[in-house]
Amino acid sequence: MPDPRLSVRDAGKSVIITAGDVDIAEYVHHPDAPDSESPKPYLHPIRSLSGAPMSSYRPHDHRWHKGLQMTWAHLSGQNFWGGPTFSAERGYHSRDDHGHMNHLGFTELSCDGERVVAEESLHWVSSRGEHWITERRRQVFHGVDAARGIWALDFSTSLRNVRGATLEFGSPTTHGRPLAGYAGYFWRGPRSWTGGTIIAAGGRGGQEMMGEQAPWLAIVGQHDEIDGGGTVLAFAGHSSASVRIKWFVRNEAFAVISPSPSFDEEIALADGDTLELAHRYVFIDHMCERDELEALGAEFAL
After folding, report:
1. Residues 13-24: pLDDT tens digits?
2. Sheet of 14-19: strands edge to edge?
3. Residue 175 DSSP SS3
4. What is the Cα–Cα distance from 25 to 238, expressed in whole angstroms?
5. Domain-by-domain residue ranges, the chain?
6. Which CATH fold would you assign to the domain 6-299?
7. pLDDT at position 2
8. Can you give the pLDDT at residue 209?
9. 48-59, pLDDT tens digit by residue?
10. CA–CA separation, 6 and 109 (whole Å)
């Protein structure tokens, strides 16, 4: 059976990527969200090739978690993540510090049947209305393989500091909370994936991967309502900063994955300089064992 062809269609505030007759991802570039959720583009719903759910949206525990999105919880005193802000003195507390990301338009939105390319320009704007970052973001949907139930997403971004002063990219961990180094590209899994299996490169896995380095990491989870389960395989990829990418990953009390560029060490980006990041996510329509993931880790390595 031939692999389903990819296509893309404009839905006004979003674009929808389809493989055959299944909508596998919707990229919402003009979200309807309150300031407290740091409005920004996101991918949701994300589905496997069979249509099984592979993401969640505005869960009751964290309303600002939205599928797969580019975020930053601590950026020079601003919150581009959403929700409360952490400080060592006060813990998590509400502040009027929520920035937002404005989609300016697509510089490329193309499809040749085998891949969809979405390249866009964005501005990161502080809670005071100041333009801090000019971003060029590129997403490539590709690698559809019906026999193995696979499709892949490549995400890359260039973040240029236009603030007029150095920007400090951090996390709750850099501000005093242990093992809470979430930053950057962040995936929230379906509620039913809670308790799923974490498998990482080199024979490692489990919650011990929190704050660790590894070229790839996966969560294997089960679906509600429909039989079976799936796997999300994420690749740490690359950062132009000297700070190493480390994994923020949980399977309790919910499933999340983020290749964090500033897990426990801040990135200082001088005015006019650019931070470049590249990651890859592979969405798999079955529950993988380690041997299969090791092979896929080599096949899709960045």
Report:
1. 999 999 999 999
2. 6-10, 14-19, 22-28, 42-46, 68-71, 184-188, 256-260, 246-250
3. coil
4. 24
5. 6-299
6. Beta-galactosidase; Chain A, domain 5 (2.70.98)
7. 81
8. 99
9. 999 999 999 999
10. 13
Torsion of CA 90, 94, 95, 100, to 10 degrees: 130
How is 10-61 classified by DSSP, letter by letter? E-SSEEEEEETTEEEEEEESS----GGG----EEEEEB-TT--B---BS-TT
Is residue 231 packed enough to be buried (19+ CB in 10 Å), middle (13-18) or exposed (0-12)? buried
CA atoms of 74 and 133, how far apart (whole Å): 14
| Residue 291: φ, ψ to 5° | -60, -40
Please state the φ and ψ torsions of residue 192, each to the nearest 5 degrees: -70, -15
pTM over 0.90: yes
Q: Does the bond joining 253 to the residue before it have cis omega, within 30 degrees of 0?
A: yes
Tokens of 35: 């300031």
The pLDDT of residue 1: 65
Question: Dihedrals φ, ψ of 296, to 5°?
Answer: -65, -35
Distance of alpha carbon 158 from alpha carbon 68, whole angstroms: 18
Which residues are registered as beta bridge partners of 76? none
For 214, the 3-state DSSP assignment is coil
Positions in the chain short of pLDDT 70: 1
Partners of residue 289 on adjacent β-strands? none
- CA 62 – CA 190 distance, rounded (Å): 13
